[in-house]
Amino acid sequence: MAECKFCKADTELYDSGVPVCVNCADAREAQRKPPSGDRVLHVLHEDFQAATDRARAAIQAFDAVTREARSGLPQPDGTQRIHNVSREVSQARIDLMRAHNRLSDYMSRAIVPDDLKRSG
Fold first, then answer.
1. Antiparallel, parallel or unpaired: β 10-11 and 2-3
2. How far apart are CA 67 and CA 105, in angstroms?
3. CB 47 within 8 A of CB 23
4. How far apart are alpha carbons 42 and 93 in whole angstroms?
């Protein structure tokens, strides 16, 4: 176990490579200023782009697995592989819709998601 840089308590938590206990991490987070509007928009846009990329990759993986299954050479775990990539596509689409809704809510109604709000 490492020692918290601030209060010297034992911890396994690290923030940017610095050992910090939960209490000190919470206290430091509370002291930070909220992100500016431009920063919120940037973070939300980056999240949306990452979700889009993950969804695209999941769909490509699904297409590859289903093409393989149609080749006539059945894989012993073919059905399970299709089921697994199908779940990945579903989750990626859910994540994409969540990112889209967060970005849309911010842009149209100036609603900042709770995880981007910081008391300061």
1. antiparallel
2. 38
3. no
4. 21
